[in-house]
Write a structure and sequence with these properties.
3-stranded antiparallel beta sheet; two-stranded antiparallel ribbon; 8% strand
Length: 210
Amino acid sequence: MEGQDPTVDCVCALTRRDADGLWIPNLETDTWEASHPEKHVELLNTGSVALLRVRRRVVRLAKAWNKQFVKPGFSSHNLSMIALEAVSGGENLADALAGYFAHAAQQVAEGDTSDPAGVSKDIPLLIPRDDAVARLDRAAKALADALAHDDDETAVRSALAKVYWKYIDDPAGPPLGATVTGLHNGRVTTSMLGLAGPVLQVRPTRAYGS
């Protein structure tokens, strides 16, 4: 589809005979590793309708943030697993997203993300830990700044541009004009985030599951 960047993962796996989950090949190390993707999907799809809606949008926005870097710091799986603890429900999207980055910064500083299914090894980072924490911390602080000045469109745009610099033009800098299409068959605007200001568009894919 024009303007889209779809990805499809197709992996051959083996059922573990004496334990839950699957053996999944690691092509980089030429070994088989235990995982439980079905349990991961079950966990991510557990909760109220409101919680699932916010969690899915937070995960998509986290993935959009991560993908902006020349070398992303996190796997998509890692970002999704962090959301299980970071997004608890009862929050609007803006507060949930800010809370996600703040929680992630603290969690990653303490160590790798553990497998909530209790099958896989801890999920490794793709960059040095200090760099990953610094990225998360900058995003958390910028989103907190946007929330603190949600009545000032220029301040909100400037703060969000620090997090989504490929999607939002900073009023203090040159226009970038970068966009991607849709989220959940539409747009996520800062008004949907509970903020004033620009439009943020993200690729319309499910973050996980069916």
